[in-house]
Design a protein that fits this description.
This protein is about 40% helix and about 15% strand. The longest helix is centred in the middle third of the chain and has 19 residues. It is an alpha+beta fold and about 170 residues long.
């Protein structure tokens, strides 16, 4: 089980929308694990379609794929349910706090029946350095060095109230 722990020490630094990192991993054996969603770490108000949670879990699987390839391993996964089953409504109805998302499996690239496929996976991932997961940062710095003018804030604020009329001012800002 130390292989999983080694991969997870770095993979937990993978990015996620709003930095919620809702993934949990239940290690089953040296080569199998369950990827779970921690229900309380989802964003039902912000993620009205379930797209954030699917993106987040996909980013985590991709991080594990890269890290595994760097150790001459191939990560495969099988979803427990269709992505459409991870909307806020579905998640809210679930009784468990940890929701099964995918079964993960590791194979050594020299053990697989399809060596060429494993080689392609490793070649595609080899250009990524594990240390990049630790240097990732979220920038909270304004894109412009000056504040947005009050009249522009007013123009943006009035858009929802007037059904989108007045977007000519918005087009000039863009």
């Amino acid at each position: 089980m130390s292989v999983w722990k080694t991969l997870l020490e770095t993979a937990i630094h993978a990015p996620s929308p709003h930095n919620v990192q809702p993934w949990r991993v239940r290690i089953l054996s040296e080569d199998r694990a369950d990827l779970l969603i921690e229900k309380r770490r989802t964003l039902p108000k912000e993620d009205t379609t379930g797209s954030f949670i699917i993106l987040t879990m996909g980013l985590f699987i991709e991080a594990l794929t890269i890290l595994a390839a760097n150790k001459s391993l191939k990560l495969d996964y099988e979803l427990y349910q269709a992505p459409s089953q991870f909307t806020p409504e579905h998640i809210a109805r679930a009784e468990a706090d940890l929701l099964p998302f995918a079964r993960l499996s590791l194979t050594h690239v020299d053990e697989g029946a399809d060596q060429r496929s494993a080689d392609r996976t490793q070649d595609a991932c080899a250009r990524y350095d594990d240390s990049l997961f630790f240097t990732r940062r979220t920038s909270r710095i304004s894109l412009l060095p000056k504040p947005v003018p009050d009249e522009d804030v007013q123009a943006f604020s009035s858009l929802p109230a007037n059904g989108g009329k007045g977007t000519s001012r918005l087009r000039r800002l863009i």
